[in-house]
Specification:
- It contains four helices and no strands.
- It is an all-alpha fold.
- The protein has a domain at 2-23 and 43-94.
- Helix 1 runs antiparallel to helix 3 (44-76).
- 2% of the residues are buried.
């Protein structure tokens, strides 16, 4: 399940980047107002903007849903031990001796007598 979701996530991410790069900016519509031939395109003069923006919104929604699903799956498999506790447990299982925490050093600097 995890592998399938990761593959879908990568595919959606690459598709989303491609769709965003294909879209024209707001300034590109100014040329169509002066007869730049945009009305002769496959989607018509305004159809491509609606199609591309809806496709981008749909892919973004799928991206967020898959991201949340992956986060849920990873969090569900998480152990309750911290990384330090897990390392200590692994060392104890291997038979290693874990040294105790060292006592804090006492400040032994000589004091300067007051004059």
């Amino acid at each position: 399940m995890y592998t399938v979701l990761v593959v879908v996530q990568v595919f959606v991410a690459v598709s989303l980047v491609g769709l965003i790069l294909v879209q024209h900016g707001k300034g590109a519509d100014a040329g169509a107002a002066f007869g730049a031939g945009a009305s002769g395109t496959v989607f018509g003069s305004r159809g491509s903007a609606n199609f591309l923006s809806r496709a981008t919104a749909a892919l973004a929604t799928v991206f967020f849903v898959v991201s949340l699903s992956l986060a849920y799956l990873v969090n569900d498999a998480k152990t309750e031990l911290s990384v330090v506790e897990q390392a200590a447990q692994d060392e104890q299982a291997a038979g290693a001796v874990i040294p105790e925490a060292a006592e804090p050093a006492v400040d032994e600097t000589p004091s300067i007598p007051e004059q």
